[in-house]
Amino acid sequence: MKIKLGTNLGFAINRYIEPEVWAKIVREDLDLSSVQFVADLLNPFLPEEYIKSQVTRIQESVKRYNITVDSIFTSAYTRVNHLMHPDEEARKIWYNWFERLFEIGAQLGCTTGGSHFGIMTFDSYDNNYDDILEEGVKGWQKLSFYAKELGYKSLIFEPMSVPREMGNTISESRKLMEMVNANSGIPMEICLDIGHAPHPEERDPYPWVEELGAVSPIIHLQQTVLHKSNHWPFTKEYNEGGLIQGEKFMKALEKSGCKETILMFEISHREHWDTEFKIIEELTESTRYWREWVKD
Fold this sequence. Notes:
Elements: E1 2-8, H1 19-29, E2 34-38, H2 48-64, E3 68-73, H3 88-108, E4 112-116, H4 122-127, H5 129-149, E5 154-158, H6 170-181, E6 188-193, H7 205-212, E7 218-221, H8 236-241, H9 246-256, E8 260-265, H10 279-290
Parallel strand pairs: 1-2, 1-8, 2-3, 3-4, 4-5, 5-6, 6-7, 7-8
Helix pairs in contact: 1-2, 3-5, 5-6, 7-9
């Protein structure tokens, strides 16, 4: 298997938003060369001139620290209904937003990008499921052709936590992928999160890895426990009681038939005195933990 180790930039949101700062942290503190950029650091809704200036700063910063921006993704503040919004006008707005997001990603060198598949309201889920699902599929299909023009190799979506957020079982995740790929410009694949095993009958994350690892060009890494998605770091404290073990994960990934992927840390720290000043320290320890299996 060809595997790289990197980090999602969610840890930088509102803390290390300056490109020069997060790039220096990624390279010099974490000793990583791959990142997944997130929309919360540069939202496409911002004025065009500001976006242009920030893209230039990011390009200069990643070049200086020899970092590759492999993918672009939504994050905490952009966890919204988007392509499955009940209002047609809102879906069009968010479709245009994704086009701009992928344009930004292309300028940064991304070859893949995406989000959660879409989120239904309770009313949509109960009364209009098929129609809203169809709208989501059509939106992603249309985006796949646009992303192809930008030079992307694939799009990705992340299986989520509850039925109306989509992909909360292995079979549903496969079905969503197959529905889009019935008419797509580039493949729709999966951004597997090893802490997301949400369905009560599928809480063990390792079968998810075995079943979906081969179609996941990006995999989010987090330490957690059964029945939760804690997004903890891989420190000695959390690893002692944590569910995710590097060796066991790598065996499951190999069993999946995976040929190539990037393991991206998606580690979250609450704004609390107990965690606020340990962020870089615990991210660094997480990198050291995974270097036993991923040398890149």
